[in-house]
Amino acid sequence: xxxxxxxxxxLSIISASFFSSCNEHKSKEKEVxxxxxxxxxxxxxxxxxxxxxxxxxxxxxxxxxxxxMRDHLDAVQNIVTLLSEEKYNEAxxxxxxxxxxxxxxxxxxxxxxxxxFENLGLKFHESxxxxxxxxxxxxxxxxxxxxxxxxxFCVQCHATYRQ
Length: 163
Fold this sequence. Notes:
The protein is mostly helical. The protein is built from seven helices and two strands; from the N terminus they run ααβαααααβ.
C-alpha cells in the first residue's frame, strides 16, 4: 500500500510539473508573437466594428484584389514547403516572381488611389525581393527571418486596410 501511495504521489508531482511547464511555454509564445505584430486593431474591435481604412473598391477591383491576395498566400505556402525541403533556389524564384516588386505589382499598388496603401504595398514587394536574395544563401534561419519580415507587411496591411 505504501509503494502505491508513493507512485501516485510521484505521478502527481510529475503531472503538476509537466502542466506547469506547458503553461509557461504557452505564455512565452504569446508574448513573442505580441512583440512581433501589432494586433491592437483586432483587440479593440468587435466582430461588427471594423475600423480599418476602406479602399472603396468596386466589385471588379475587389475580386481582382482577392485573387491577388490568395495568390500571395499560395506563394507563401509554397515557399514554406520549399524551405522545409531546403530547396532555396526554387523558393527564391517564387518569392521574386510572385511576391517581388515586378512592374505589374508596382502598377497594381499605385492603382488604388491611396498613397499610404501604395507605399505599404511597395515595401511588401521590396521586402520579397530582399527575401528572394536571402533564400539564395541557403541559410534556413536567415531565410525564415526574411519570410517573417515580409509577412509582417502582410499583417500590417490587413490590420490597416479592407476592401
